[in-house]
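During the reporting period the student researcher (J.K.) took over the structure-prediction task from the postdoctoral fellow and processed the backlog of single-chain submissions. One of the processed entries is reproduced below for the supervisory committee.
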Amino acid sequence: MFEKKKIFVFGMARSGYEISKLLLKKGCMVLTVDAKEQKKEHVLELESLKGEVVITENPSAYLDETFDYMIKNPGIKYDNPCVLKAKELEIPVINEVEASYHMLKDVFIIGVTGSNGKTTTTTLIYEILKKALVPVHLGGNIGLPVAGIVEDVKKGDVLLLEISDHQLCDMYDFKTNISVFTNVSPTHLDFHDSYDTYKRMKMRIFNHHTKEDIAILNGENEELVSLTKEIPSSKKCFGIDKTKDIYLDGETIVCPDYLTLDTKECILTGKHNYENMMAAILVCKSMHIDAEVVKEVLKEFKGVPHRLEFVCKRNGVSIFNDSKSTNNVATITALKSFKTPILLLLGGLDRGQDYEELLPFMKEVRKVYSFGETKEKIKQFCETSKIPCTIYENLEEATLATLKEAEEMDTILLSPAHASWDQYACFEDRGEEFKKIVLS
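J.K. obtained the following structure tokens:
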């Protein structure tokens, strides 16, 4: 499909770099364009492969009808002028995962998506398959871009991908054998402009499915159940009632004819994590993985960094890093996990969200420490809701204030409910700074 083609890679970063390198090795003519300076060693490597890298604020000036494909970074909106120009020129616009998919042969693909929980679910599946000695490769929105591992994937291997809504926007031929959809709720509306568009993009995780393919779904998420009503996949649902294929019976996970797991034996806690576990179990049951291996991994799994990550306990105060919570639903999940007084660090990029849906879950919040672009809006919400709140310019100032004011038995919780891009390159950077401040 891509042999000796002329490719316009729009947006470099990790995925653009990896797909440019892969296509250059396959004899393509590749122009990689970005507005920001890139790592010098990456630029030099692409140039050594006879690729061209251009840093410009006007990418459209470099795009013309001679290009066969545009491979767009998932973070670039589909109404970007350069993307619109490509469509006017009838140049197909795809992304790195879609391009890489066409270079795979006879590979079993598992795709995991959802508004929340997808990273933990994907990581759980990966750890279990590794323990079971399945030849599995992890990529997509977690780990390496798919283009970075294509050359390592062999016939019969398993490719496990976390897939975001941004990536699904530019997927057309891509198909999974098993698709996991953890839940759906309004998020990323600043990117998609409407919730309906967001949901429509998410549904592409079931592209080209037949009854031979498996869809693993959250049976408690009514909107997701309705959304997936007509898909042709063989559905497997998880939930809390015994009609589901796997269910939570009190504190016990029951998967009939496969395994029973006492959640008190697991390090991970919280209903949201039990849902992630149930989704992973259904994947493993579908793949005939030994149930004892599954139970062993689930009992030992400590969680994923920046997702309700326990940082430390000091002077009787428990401190948690939940930087990955970039929307209200994720922060609600975090708030529901504690029964102790909470000092809540809240703030970040303004996506126009309404904080009212947080209010019913803030009964344990003793004080809010707002920071970043949305600090004033949060302060106004807290004043109306009669919740104490102090404004800070940045996370460092807010964190130091919590450490000074926390009392024994309090919980300090960074669960921002906002993307990090107002002050950080990514939520990982935000979480790492938080931990560094706390541990210093």
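The committee noted the following: The longest helix spans residues 271-286.
J.K. will present the remaining backlog at the next meeting.
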